[in-house]
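Predict the 3D structure for this chain.
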Amino acid sequence: MAIQRGGPSTGLPTKTEQADLLQAMYGRNGEAPVPVVAPRTPADCFDAALEAARIALTYRTPVFLLSDGYLANGSEPWRIPATDELPDLRVEFAAGPNHTLPDGTEVFWPYKRDPQTLARPWAVPGTPGLEHRIGGIEKQDGTGNISYDPANHDFMVRTRQAKIDNIAVPDLAVDDPDHARTLVLGWGSTYGPITAAVRRLRKTGTPIAQAHLRHINPFPRNLADILTRYDKVVVPEMNLGQLATLLRARYLVDAHSYNQVNGMPFKAEQLATALKEAIDA
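Done. Predicted structure below.
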């Protein structure tokens, strides 16, 4: 979990920023993708954390939960959910062999993946017969033995990417009552000021569409279709355009950045003015 603040290093420890997105996306050795989830309000932090836990447990992967200083220092009314309203996050651990060798011997293969999620089985440490290697050296598919085979490494790299790409996330919802030609797309704590700015513009008769990403890796599967519907896509961020960079690279869209890196959150009037200028340009 990252509570983003003005950086780098200690930077502005009590101020807000959204400058860790690219680090969360790519800040590891080699091709090792990780899911990224971003809450949009103080209350949404609870649901986003549950979603991150669901992904982590279902797909057996670390997950980045990207909050920021604006959310961490904020508050809003929130109804404590009843326990029966919460998702079932229980995990089924491996209890015995899961593979049969050609000679009929039953063994435990720690890298035999679920065909739907590509997740590996979990064995409780110390379970007799389920002992296996752990560590950072590349493993052989299935057996988990140490492997320096080029073809195996290629397969494992692509499998790790495929596991993240195939994570099931909800489609992105778009608020567009007036069939606008301009979409404002945000993530994280920019939700509040973006929503307020959109309301101001609509009150003046200016059509504008709004969408807000919770899942940044993988992106929602309908995002490409959404981006192609609009003549202009404006992405307000408290960084120098990190989400916009990802959108341009992935979808080849001319996403327009509106950026602020002074440690302060956007203001509704400020965003309304910037969005109106983008619409009229």
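The first strand starts at residue 2 and ends at 6.
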